[in-house]
Amino acid sequence: MTSSTFDKGLIVSFGEMLIDFVPTESGVSLSESQGFLKSPGGAPANVAIAVSRLGGRAAFVGKLGDDEFGHMLAGILRKNGVADQGINFDKGARTALAFVTLRSDGEREFMFYRNPSADMLLRPDELNLELIRSAKVFHYGSISLITEPCRSAHMKAMEVAKEAGALLSYDPNLREPLWPSSEEARTQIMSIWDKADVIKVSDVELEFLTGNKTIDDETAMSLWHPNLKLLLVTLGEKGCRYYTKGFHGSVETFHVDAVDTTGAGDSFVGALLNQIVDDQSVFEEEERLRIVLRFANACGAITTTKKGAIPALPSDCEALSFLKGQVEA
């Protein structure tokens, strides 16, 4: 870690890390696939690695199985420069697995193995509170809200980070098959909505949470709350929309040959958080926010061009080179 990296504000990511098994061929069902590539994943972990790869300072808080996969994942975080003082290991439960179907358009479907997996068993008393208090940004999803004791650990970590002055960043990262019902998912995702300073939802999540199929400003603003600094709606190949207290608009994305969309949203979030961790004045300055979002869109687009999430997350140099190529093109 360079001294310039050490000077940066710490982004702590809370939640699940797991192994995605990605089929070696696109456009086939799980039963038809001849083979799978083992790919580390889990949205909060992806965000932490995205931040680190872009030159930021990141830590991960969560629980892994005390098994070969769990230690492999902890090693991947360390290898990618993510601080691991917030990781716990569970001797009784396995590391979570997900089998991912890649459709021919690069979109995904999931089948999860977690009953229960180690990430669900993180307890409040296992949290590294010192690490959480040192966060300038505390980022989380909603999968950690599904079951106890992890839900209580999530609530405690969020409360401690907020009290210590961290910016709270929330990407619900809806995975409907993991919830007992759609209603429960909606209720729990919204139960912590008004705590966050920055929220990013996809167009699919926006429709799910509002019940409105029309993706427009009015629908998005129905999710606004008074303490929010930035609401983002990602639209896949159509870019993203942004909403602040003073202005709103949209930023187009970049057209690439998408192979696998896994991790694209996490890459976008990591890039955004890395740009705002030490300078939140972008929430008041639209032109600067647009530049930040263009960079985040570029990182998201690059991530879709390779299979798997973590291997596809770009470095700062790759993202800048990609943007330079777009300008020249």
TrEMBL record:
EC number: 2.7.1.4
Superkingdom field: Eukaryota
Pfam families found in the cross-reference section: PfkB
InterPro entries tied to this protein: Carboh/pur_kinase_PfkB_CS, PfkB_Carbo_kinase, PfkB_dom, Ribo/fructo_kinase, Ribokinase-like
Annotated ranges, domain Carbohydrate kinase PfkB: 10-314
Alphabetized UniProt keyword annotations: Kinase, Transferase
Reaction it catalyzes: D-fructose + ATP = D-fructose 6-phosphate + ADP + H(+)
PROSITE patterns for this protein: PFKB_KINASES_1, PFKB_KINASES_2
Pathway involvement of the protein, from the record: Glycan biosynthesis; starch biosynthesis
SUPFAM superfamilies xref list: Ribokinase-like (SSF53613)
Family listed: Belongs to the carbohydrate kinase PfkB family.
Entry function: May play an important role in maintaining the flux of carbon towards starch formation.
UniProt protein name: fructokinase
